[in-house]
Design a protein that fits this description.
Keywords: ATP-binding, Cell membrane, Membrane, Nucleotide-binding, Transport. The chain is 24% helix and 34% strand. The chain has 2 domains: 236 residues, P-loop containing nucleotide triphosphate hydrolases (Rossmann fold, 3-Layer(aba) Sandwich), CATH 3.40.50.300; 116 residues, Beta Barrel (OB fold (Dihydrolipoamide Acetyltransferase, E2P)), CATH 2.40.50.140. It is of the alpha+beta class. Helix 3 packs parallel to helix 5 and helix 4 crosses helix 5. The longest helix has 18 residues.
């Protein structure tokens, strides 16, 4: 296991990057704690796989260093980094049996045969393939081959880190849930440093101790699932995390009040003057619908019943917004106003969260 340090790290696939957009990975400075489980989360093309390949040694960064427990491994080949990596699409040896595939990393390192047998049986049970250990991998489904690939990545107990690059893409939904649970249990039992790349927020939030959210080549926030939900540090985090994501409204901020669509909205804190494009963000769970009164004018567009709750789609002065109601909660007759829970409102300037000066009614 290892603490992983990204020191002034950046990467471009161009020989001479000249502008910000030329960098696939913009400068990063982070320490990833030894033994924690991280998820790299973001949309396709945001730099997740680039960063993972730099950590594993498949790609050398254009700038900066990678350190494992303080040792510079920037130029060290993958084999010297003592990591295991599982890719998006299964990589198995068709001429080998399932058991031989699982045993391969241990045999390569000259492990004791009794230990190899013990580990292969344990991993085969974990991935539900203990009855297929003597079967050739050729002819197995993509789903089964990816389970072998996952198992081979997990069979070693002495690795510095386990890296997973969207490993459940080809796995059926029911098995995805089981394998995520097993990966979490593996982390709990052995304490490996794990980094899991995904664009699926459910996978990220259920797997990781900390989620690393990436956008446009940058890490925009590292936090627990609760921190990402309650206090998104960037509007992309608010939009990307949650279903539906955070509502964002252009607003004028003055002290403890925001002015939005001709109405005043009480904030849960007081703010210094906000420059740039100022916005407030509030999740649909904290939006309340009312008929009449002094709330923010809004128009109900439609109501979608998704079983466990209702999603109310709204037009707020030309901005599409959402509110979530409990399954048994009706939409108020003639609803045309919104109220927000003040403590759940975040303030943003040019997409970045603004820290309040003080909470309303008390010192910060």
């Amino acid at each position: 296991m290892a603490k992983i340090t990204l020191d002034n790290l950046a990467h471009s696939y161009l020989a001479q990057p000249a502008k910000d957009d030329d960098w696939a990975l913009k400068e990063l400075n982070h320490d990833w704690v030894d033994g924690e489980a991280y998820a790299l989360l973001g949309a396709s093309g945001c730099g997740k796989s680039t960063l993972l390949n730099i950590i594993s040694g498949l790609l050398r960064p254009s700038r900066g260093r990678i350190l494992f427990d303080g040792r510079d491994v920037t130029d060290a080949p993958t084999a010297e980094r003592n990591i295991a990596q599982v890719f998006q699409f299964p990589v198995v040896y068709d001429t080998m049996t399932v058991g031989e595939n699982l045993a391969f990393p241990l045999k390569n390192r000259g492990a004791d045969p009794a230990y190899i047998s013990e580990r292969v049986n344990a991993i085969a049970a974990m991935i539900g393939m203990e009855d297929q250990l003597r079967r050739k991998a050729r002819g197995l489904t993509a789903d089964a081959k990816q389970k072998i690939s996952l198992g081979r990545g997990m069979v070693r107990e002495d690795v510095n880190a386990l890296l997973f690059d969207e490993p459940l893409t080809v796995i059926d939904p029911h098995m995805k849930w089981e394998l995520r649970t097993q990966l979490k249990q593996l982390h709990h039992d052995f304490g490996h440093t794990m980094i899991y790349v995904t664009h699926d927020q459910t996978e990220a939030l259920t797997f990781a101790d900390k989620v690393v959210v990436m956008h446009d080549g940058r890490v925009v926030q590292i936090g627990t699932p609760q921190e990402l939900f309650e206090r998104p540090e960037h509007t992309f985090v608010g939009f990307f995390i949650g279903s539906p994501g955070m509502n964002l409204f252009d607003a004028e901020i003055s002290g403890g009040t925001a002015r939005l669509n001709g109405a005043e909205v009480a904030l849960g804190a007081s703010y210094a003057p906000v420059g740039g494009r100022s916005q407030i963000g509030v999740r649909p769970e904290f939006v309340r619908l009312e008929a009449g009164g002094e709330g923010v004018p809004a128009r109900v567009l439609r109501v979608e019943d998704v079983g466990r709750h209702k999603i109310v789609r709204l037009d707020v002065g030309g901005t599409v917004a959402n509110a979530i109601l409990d399954e048994g909660q009706p939409v108020p007759a003639g609803a045309d106003r919104l109220r927000f829970e003040p403590e759940a409102i975040n303030v943003y300037s040019d997409d970045w969260r603004v820290a309040p000066e003080r909470a309303q009614g008390r010192a910060a």
